Amino acid sequence: MKNAAALSEHLPAAAPVAGGSRSRRGAGRAELELSPAASADLSTRDRVTQLLLERGATTAAQLGSALGLSPAAIRRHLDAMLADGDVVAREQVVRGSRGRGRPAKVFLLTDAARVRCGTHHYDNMATAALRWIARNGGSDAVQEFAAEQVAALEARCRAAMEDAGDEPLARAEALAGALTAEGYAANASTIASGGQLCQHHCPVAHVAAEFPQLCEAETAVISRLVGTHVQRLATIAHGDGVCTTHIPAQPRAQSGTTVTTVRTDR
């Protein structure tokens, strides 16, 4: 869950990595389907990102010279990155007397692009910190940490679900909306055996691959918010494409009224 990433969000990043362009989102399986030209574009934008990360404000001419690209080629990449919100353009500050004409523009990475450049190193630092907690406090300490990190998110989602009623599937739909607002691209659907909640983004997948306590804490939160026992079927942390949580259909008495389910997860 988002708050489980709090540790990684507040740790300093190590050396930056290329690949921060928004065009890199969804890299992996989908990237295998790119044409050679599209793959080359992504690679070039990664190199532009790396140069801007290292040099700060840089002109198009300087970037083109460093990468061996023509003015038209570097402009095409910069225009695409401007449209994606990965860079901003500003007038170059010139000290002293200035020649005729408008000053050249310089390009800088946006804050969002800088954050994406350091994602993997934030994850590595968070993993190292959790290893330290595990060595010194054991598995129980990791569980306590994970539960504490999701507490604030649980409170926000519960507030957003205030008018969802008591029916588990209706609450799952409301929870999906609350999680989507938190950045998880979630959705809920009805299936033959009940319902399922799918989360298409996991901000702590790299860390949770080693520390499943993060996923367990998240599942417990979903159970409490939906109001019934749930079962986690798949997680991004374990290599699945989507985090999928099954919500069993509620048993009904012969009269048609819902049977009260005894909760065991509190």
TrEMBL record:
This is Predicted transcriptional regulator, ArsR family. InterPro entries: ArsR-like_HTH (IPR011991), Carb_Metab_HTH_regulators (IPR050313), WH-like_DNA-bd_sf (IPR036388), WH_DNA-bd_sf (IPR036390). PANTHER family: HTH-TYPE TRANSCRIPTIONAL REGULATOR SRLR-RELATED, TRANSCRIPTIONAL REGULATORY PROTEIN-RELATED.
